[in-house]
Design a protein that fits this description.
The chain is built from 13 helices and ten strands. It is an alpha/beta fold. The longest helix is centred in the middle third of the chain and has 20 residues. The chain is globular. The two termini are 30 Å apart. Bound molecules: fructose -6-phosphate.
């Protein structure tokens, strides 16, 4: 039930700190360490390459998951859109492991790939919010999101839950391989839950950002570099699906290869800047588009901020920033849709689970 909330989407955005804490609790053992079913960790270690298969928001979570698994556990990862994989299968490695990311566990495009790779004899893990769902039943292993039912069509808490569970999977796998990490994931996730709470308490801020940048515009572009680019893709999907603003996410460096031609007087550009290694680069992009008349909305992180930034998120470990930086984008999308009188929880032409290919 949505209780006092006007929309499920807002309620689900607000639940994210609780979901983070629930995930920490569910994946912790009596010794206070993160733990995952040994069979899953063995499957990770037996693989010479991991293939993440997903659609929509879950695909965007997969792009972040690839960074975790490669940087923490040092196993190569490819991320594929389910619907493309079926007829465009890449040349597989010798010992592939498939990870399906699906909130509903019912997405037909993803299931079609699972059926195909099972026939080929490969192992699979489903990361899902729904115990007993089709993809959970049909895969060899399941990791649950523990996010509670997600009712709004636009996925919010499932995305951050997917990223948290992927981080835990990467951490436990890394430890099993004797790899030392430079941070304590349980501690970081706890800090992230607190930081999420702070952002959820600043809703008026995001309402006014949405009003300033998105009330009348026809389009909006999200830019970022590295992991911020993947969050930009998710921000653009959120905005387009509920506000019907034509929104696209781009890698900052790609702007000059085409997209910059679309910049007009007042075009909103939402830039995400949470990565020290690419901060100069993304700041350069903001200058380029501003010089051409764009209206820049800059979401940066404490420690990397510059004068004129629109919103500064609290500082978190550089790998885990998507868990925080996506919240402003979710809230801005929500308010943009509200200001434009859109049906936030049930956008036109969309269904919560897409059970046809
Ligand atoms: C976006 C959204 C969709 C789903 C996609 C996959 O807000 O909800 O893009 O992420 O249809 O759904 P699942 O994760 O259930 O496989």
């Amino acid at each position: 039930e949505k209780g006092t909330y006007p929309h499920y989407m807002l309620k689900e955005i607000d639940e994210q700190p609780l979901v983070m804490r629930k995930i920490i609790q569910k994946y912790q053992n009596d010794q206070g360490e993160l733990t995952i079913d040994q069979e899953i960790i063995d499957a990770m270690n037996d693989a010479d390459r991991i293939y993440i298969i997903a659609a929509g928001t879950s695909y965007h979570a997969g792009l972040v998951g690839k960074q975790f698994i490669e940087k923490m556990a040092k196993i190569p990862v490819e991320v594929h859109i389910s619907s493309e994989f079926g007829y465009n299968m890449p040349l597989l490695s010798e010992k592939p492991l498939f990870i399906f990311i699906t909130q509903s566990g019912e997405t037909a495009d993803s299931r079609a790939v699972l059926v195909q790779v099972k026939e080929m004899g490969y192992k699979s893990i489903t990361i899902t919010n729904v115990q007993g769902s089709t993809l959970s039943r049909e895969a060899d292993h399941t990791l649950l999101l523990h996010a509670g039912p997600e009712i709004a069509v636009a996925s919010t808490k499932a995305y951050t839950a997917q990223i948290a569970v992927l981080a835990i999977l990467a951490e436990v796998t890394a430890k099993s391989r004797g790899i030392e990490l430079d941070f304590d994931l349980i501690h970081e996730l706890g800090m992230i839950a607190n930081a999420m709470e702070v952002l959820c308490d600043e809703k008026e801020e995001f309402e006014s950002i949405a009003r300033e940048f998105l009330t009348v515009t026809r389009n909006a572009f999200f830019i970022g570099r590295g992991i911020d680019y993947y969050v930009g893709l998710e921000g653009a999907l959120k905005l387009k699906e509920i506000s019907y603003i034509q929104a696209e996410g781009f890698a900052g460096g790609e702007l000059k290869h085409g997209t910059i031609a679309l910049i007009e007087e007042g075009t909103p550009i939402i830039a995400i800047a949470t990565q020290e290694s690419v901060n100069l680069g993304i700041r350069g992009n903001v200058k380029e588009v501003t010089a051409r008349g764009a209206n820049p909305c800059i979401i940066s992180m404490k420690g990397l901020e510059s004068e004129g930034d629109t919103f500064i998120i609290p500082e978190v470990h550089e790998l885990l920033t998507p868990l925080i930086s996506v919240l402003p984008l979710q809230l801005i999308s929500y308010y943009a849709a509200l200001h434009r009188d859109c049906d936030v929880d049930k956008p036109r032409n969309l269904a919560k689970s897409v059970t046809v290919e």
